[in-house]
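Notes from hallway chat w/ T.B., transcribed later so I don't forget. T.B. wanted the structure written out for a chain they're using in a teaching module, and asked if we could keep both sequence and structure tokens in one place. Agreed to drop them here.
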Amino acid sequence: MQPPDVERLCRSIVPGAGSVQVQALGAGLLSETYKVTRDGAAYALKVAAEHRPELGMDRAWEVRVLERAGGAGLAPRLVYSDAGGAVVLARWVSGRPWLSQESTLAANIRSIAGLLRQVHALAVPAPPRVVSPLQWIAIYGTALSRSSAPPGDPALRTAAVTRAQQIAEPPLAAGVVCHSDLHAMNLIRGAESLILVDWEYAHVADPLWDLAGWSANNDLEPGAQWTLLSDYLQTTPAQQDWRRLRLFLWLYDYVCLLWCRLYLTVPGEQGRGGQGGAQGIAERARLLDARLHLPAHYAA
């Protein structure tokens, strides 16, 4: 949105009567994010991006998740949303994100495990938005086929589909609300607790999907992954749980690679947001691609 349009929107939906101060924070594939201040109170505003790809998102379902998560103290409290969830306003959370090295500390691994147990205990809004890794691969594949992205590696996609099919085999965990975008910048250490922001990719999935996402986005070594899984389960993991986590980790990395490729094709997005622009995204994609070609790294 253009700055005048954002200010006009804020004057109509942000509580208070004074002037509004708007600070653009960044943009991703799906949304633009702003910090808005009015009458001494601060808010986070998310607006659906104008040139966003079709990823099958359900904004109204996301809002219902935010209502539950905000009420449980796991997300910023929702202040306003439009009927379709394209505009979402929440209270600003004061605090700071974790530094990357903080994610590997034993005490913080326990904290994340506890936070994820709370997230996964949230009541699932009906009807549930269920997305499996195989469905993510199909969703991004369709979006990429409609974009200007060059063809991907067919052998890599075949390997991903094979692993996604393995994940779909028993034993299957009951689906829970997963945040699905767990990285240090989406975790705020508030005055009293940890708060997760940016829930737009939330969906119902195997809880290990979130553990894999946190592990992948923070480059956790296998030892830290094992600790995270142990702390989450509150017991020594069974071999099948460990194997499934490693499979989910591979698949999460692959979905991130698809995201990177798609991000590079969206008009106006390449140089914006916290991703370092097209060059940074291309570098991340290269590293992910190299990582994904090392299946032994993920062997159980």
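Follow-up for T.B.: The first strand starts at residue 20 and ends at 27. Might be a good example for the class.
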